[in-house]
Amino acid sequence: MDKNKMKYKRLNFLRILQILLFISPLASASKLAIVIDDVGYRQEDYAIYDMPQEVTVSIIPVSPYATERAEKAFEQQRDVLIHQPMQPLSKIKIEDKALEVGMEKPQIQEIMDYARKRVPYAIGLNNHMGSAATADQQLMNYFMEILANEQLFFLDSKTNSKSVAAQTAKSFYIPTLERHVFLDDNNSLADVQRHFDLAVRYAQKNGLAILIGHPRKNSIKVLQQGIKNLPNDVELVKMSSLWRNEKVKISKPLIMFFEMKPAQTSTSNLNNVPLLRGVPKE
Question: Which superkingdom is the protein from (predicted)?
Answer without folding.
Answer: Bacteria
